[in-house]
Amino acid sequence: MADVVILGAGMMGSAFSFPLVDAGHAVRLVGTHLDREWIQSVRETGIHPKLKMKLPGTVAPFTHDQLGEALSPSPDLIVLGVNSAGVDWAVQQLGPLLKGPTPILMLTKGLRARENTLQILPVIVRDGLASHGVKNVPVGGVAGPCIAGELAARRDSSVVITYADAKLLDRILGLVAAPYYHARPSTDIVGVEVCAGFKNLYALAVGYPAGLLAKQGEAPDRPRAHNLAAALFAQALGEIRYVVGFLGGKLASVDGLPGTGDLYVTCQGGRNVRIGYLLGTGLRFSQARTEYGSTETIEGAQFALAVGPTMEGLFEQGRLKRQALPLAGAILDAICHDVPLQIPWTAFHREANA
Amino acid sequence: MADVVILGAGMMGSAFSFPLVDAGHAVRLVGTHLDREWIQSVRETGIHPKLKMKLPGTVAPFTHDQLGEALSPSPDLIVLGVNSAGVDWAVQQLGPLLKGPTPILMLTKGLRARENTLQILPVIVRDGLASHGVKNVPVGGVAGPCIAGELAARRDSSVVITYADAKLLDRILGLVAAPYYHARPSTDIVGVEVCAGFKNLYALAVGYPAGLLAKQGEAPDRPRAHNLAAALFAQALGEIRYVVGFLGGKLASVDGLPGTGDLYVTCQGGRNVRIGYLLGTGLRFSQARTEYGSTETIEGAQFALAVGPTMEGLFEQGRLKRQALPLAGAILDAICHDVPLQIPWTAFHREANA
User: Does the pLDDT at position A13 exceed 60?
Assistant: First the structure.
């Protein structure tokens, strides 16, 4: 039995308590400052209002101001389940409290612009903790197709766990294994994080064709636009492959669960696909955002806004070839410059099937 | 303007008349002996009853006994649109009538067991015609995500055309280009055909998780099993990658439209997914076939029955590694030996993310 602290009590952070508890571990779930109501509800009823499920009874809920308490005694593993915008906050909270290099497992995935290039989040966290004087914290990640609600319903889910250190990786894999949680090892942290970041961006594009049909007033019993969606799906993976190569990751991650698997599951629905649909109806992003209504994070759009300017800089310098990323370029134009999303067919054809 | 004969007036053969006519060509559509009613309907009303659409007015319909008439004068291109079971019939019909090496473009895709290994259909057709004394017929194929009904509705569709000869490939590409039909070149006939054959087999597996939920009595507002479907989707592409390598094709075909794109579109619905769903509910294949009711070809199951014994022989000889194809092995067991389909999780894990 291990002691595990999960920081971040959103959908994914909370869902992750299920395999951990089922594997026999003691779990302390710490909400962020934004999760106060959810932690309150878990305390009172056991039910997570967003996940709409009762968490395992042994999960101990903490509010963010109780993080120090939750971290004492020092746990065997800290799981980071904040959203990508909350990573800096998490580092600021953990930095002063960590007493040593407790391994961190990030459910939060992706990339961020730094020093005119793209940097993966585990490195951001590791460096951030080091600047608080906590050196050599091993930071790894989980990737692959894993919708939180399905994990919490104990549905079979297959993921990849990455750490640079193979021995630690082996230990964490053993720790998280549950009958329905099939985790397999990877040491390709870079490839895995690139896939995780970009899949949200491309899910916007895969949602687009259905919107296009709606704009054309097509009845639901008429032929759909799956051919187009499938072409965009394949193009997306081809472009992710290029970025993974550019940043020094391994193509096997694109082929497997982190790339192919996670893009597939992300395209089955959700906010990114919905915004893509609205772009397909002819709306600009600013209009789609308004039409969508909710203030919830659209991960794909947030990613575009966060890394778009840096990617455009890399395009201009010729370090990243825009002609290798025509679909990403079109999506960045749509999100960052609020122009209608257009499918760049001829650009696809020049790069295709090389 | 070119003269094009399409042999096979099913969904795909008939749909292919749209881009050809829109590209300005004269199209003669020849039904097989099974398509007589459809040809009759096209003659009388222009409407294809199965496609539920009116074909372009300039398409000239012929019944199979008029094939000689349709082939005179000799066309610039013959498009083969029969189903995979009809390939031998088509060769027997064309063999005595062809006067020279008119290029053939196969919409019929896939593989067949021959001489204890797997052989791609274009080679079967080329060799079959040669045995009728018609030598050196260039036989190529179309692959990629292209549902017939969507093509006929002039929806954007992106495909790959393959010929061994780059010059001919270029000519055919120019010939089939229409504003909504985005065709790009490949010389990897083997890779493209392997993808096309195996995608139907794996679509059965991707349909399975929804059936599993139905068996468990899960209500539609409960979490789905997209995580599992996505894991199977990624595993499928990994296994297709292995078979393409085994038969000497190129991995770029798996990454692009023929593999990733076509598997994606095939998993959006249709007969293979439906049978997979029924297997997920716990039925054996024989029961699922009965439950499904229709006598229509289930391409994935037909493929399993056709190549399964040969693949099992290759497994036994150690030429094809069964441990590299655990999902294919499980599907073959389910279809060829009528045992319940089981997801071989642990086998996935041993091979994963190499």
Answer: yes
* DSSP designation for A310: H
**Residues of chain B contacting residue A238, judged by C-beta atoms under 8 Å apart:** 255-256
Q: How is residue B165 annotated by DSSP?
A: S
Cα-based distances in Å from B314 to A306, B33, B237: 51, 36, 20
Give the position of tokens 């962020």: A32
CATH number for the segment(s) A3-187: 3.40.50.720
Beta bridge partners of A7: A30, A80
| pLDDT score of A168 | 97
**What is the value of pTM for the model shown?**
0.97
Tokens of B237: 């592409």
**Where in chain A is CATH 3.40.50.720?**
3-187
Please judge whether A256 and B234 are an interchain contact, meaning their C-beta atoms are less than 8 angstroms apart. yes
User: DSSP H helical segments within A132-165, as ranges?
Assistant: 148-152
Which H/E stretch holds residue B209?
A: helix B189-215
Listed residue (A265, A278, A313) closest to A143, CA to CA:
A265
Question: How many angstroms away from the CA of A254 is the closest CA of chain B?
Answer: 9
For testing contact with chain A, the best of B146, B226, B266 (most A CBs within 10 A): B226
Report B:301-330 residues touching A (Cβ under 8 A).
Answer: none
Within chain B, all domains assigned CATH 1.10.1040.10 are found at: 190-351
The pLDDT of residue A351: 39
Q: What is the mean pLDDT of residues A224-237?
A: 97
Q: What is the C-alpha R_g of chain B?
A: 20
Span A314-352, pLDDT tens digits: 999 999 999 999 999 999 999 999 999 998 888 886 534
Cβ count near A286 (within 10 Å): 10
d(CA A227, CA B143): 12
Second-level CATH architecture of B190-351: Orthogonal Bundle (1.10)
Query: Is residue A162 a contact partner of residue A216, using CB atoms and an 8 Å limit?
Result: no
Q: Can you give the pLDDT at residue B350?
A: 52
Q: Which residues in chain B show pLDDT less than 70?
A: 349-354
Our CA dihedral for A335, A337, A341, A343, rounded to 10 degrees, sits at -110
pLDDT band at A43 (very low <50, low <70, confident <90, very high): very high
